[in-house]
Amino acid sequence: MKKRLPIGQSDFKTIIEEDMYFVDKSLLIKEVIESGNVLLITRPRRFGKTLSQSMMKYFFDITQNNEYLFKNLKIYKEKNIIEKHLNKHPVIYITFKDLKSNNLKKMHDLLISELSTLYIDHKYVLNVLDEEEKLVYKSITLKKANDSEYENSIRNLSKYMERYYSKKVIILIDEYDTPIQQAYLHGYYDEIISLIGNLFGMALKDNVYLEKAVLTGITRVSKESIFTGVNNLEVSTVLNELFNDKYGLTKEEVEETLKYYELEYEEDEVINWYNGYNFGGVEIYNPFSIVTLAKNKGKIRPYWMNTSGNFLVKQLIKQGSAELKDKIEKLINGEEIESTINETMVYGDLNNNLEESVWTLFLFSGYLKWTKNINHDYERYTLKIPNKEVKIFYNKTVVSMLEEERIKFDNMLLNLKVGRIKTFTDQFKDLTMNTLSYFDVSGKEPERFYHGLILGMSVGLKEKYIIKSNRETGLGRADVILIPKDKTDKGIIIEFKKYNRDEDKSLKDSAKNGLNQINEKKYEEEIKSYGINNIIKVSIAFDKKEVEIISNLDKGIELTPEEKIAKEMIKKGLDINMISELTGISIEKLKNMLNK
């Protein structure tokens, strides 16, 4: 019988004692011992951070005898380390992974509760405390201390434990940044950051009772003064080589796992779906996805994307600038983008929607991978979507941004496809007027927003249409082109026009100019090259959230006075060059009128 897979299990002792399947990452302990006094390790969620912290707790903890847990692991061959460190250190272990709340008071209570539990677990140190220290200690266990006493609680506990054991203390903090992210999401960031910053700062800065500290999380948050002045701080992110193969699965570990469970699989398919991460130059697979793949007997599914924790990323895409949405479109199309990556990003900066902070968060959270460091001085990287599993998230997010408001994109484009242009126009106007107040449509290039909106609608048509945007076609650049794979269907061209108050008489006039541009610059040529001659041409003119739409499906499109005169001249058979001189209308536009 095969070993049980540790789905949802992050307690190292349980996994070993119950003989579950375990990918041996125990040499992480050796690397930690040989590294700096304070270590910060950031990786995406579900990449083994909690399990690794649990493993180190059982290895170092002086109150236990856990030799039997490590006898069959790689670390046990390191005899010098086993002799000096196995169950030889006082350990403070605390996890913040469950500190999640939408309000400040509850978060404060949750944090106090964690610190109270920590003190209760180590109440044996009361034997070496003086009376004044005992009073403060008991007030923390009873959740009646003041904030300054809570802020000093981890440092003081390390002092008491060092006094009790006559040995310096190892501090392990799991998911240290969860309360910081929660505070940002729910609007009490400024209020909580001081308490959290002081708690960590007191424990880590110039703490003479500290042997080593290891913190794990998703992001490095240093400008909040949490790590300012920390001696011998070493940071391991997805960008550097420190611990680069100790979180996530290497290709060899994936092959070994799938072979053990006797799964037949297409290597390329597994690579396309779950590979793509670059941790300090090492090719890494998503461990949660691989383990769940094995549990489901090799069925390819977007397992990681179905887990929680992507709310912030979705929110930032939704609220992002036109420039950000344009880059999201490029990523979905398989292209790379460039950005400066700020390893010391601050959640507070996200309020300003600084693009480098957004891309940094996406990279550290596992929604992007880096492919190349193109400028070492400015930490500038090329970025792309790591695999098909994550790409599905982007596709769904682009659509769900508006599905959350119960807008059905497929229905809107279906109305356009079958020629119900008035219904499409009414739905699109309603969308822009009533549901898009949070989008940036007033910047320097608001057309990028509308462009991204149409592309979002088009996601559901990918099986039936080839979707192209901003591509060279005919004599110019079409904004969006939908080429049907079934030649009996209609092709669609969409052009966006920003209202120009100096040149356009009205928003409708802008829309007409857009339709004229489609005709004059022969945007339909690329669609015709596929053998499609039935083409719907749509011009969407906008002034912030006000929209006017004109298409070649409209009956009796209003002509300008000059166009009416030109049309009569054409009917009388006058020379087209002369008509152009008299009316000021271009030859190309007159030819289009003649063809009609």
Automatic annotation (TrEMBL):
Domain annotation AAA-ATPase-like: ranges: 6-227
Organism of this sequence: Tepiditoga spiralis
UniProt xrefs under InterPro entries: AAA-ATPase-like_dom, P-loop_NTPase, PDDEXK_9
Domain of life: Bacteria
Pfam families listed in its UniProt record: AAA-ATPase_like, PDDEXK_9
Name of the protein this chain belongs to: AAA-ATPase-like domain-containing protein
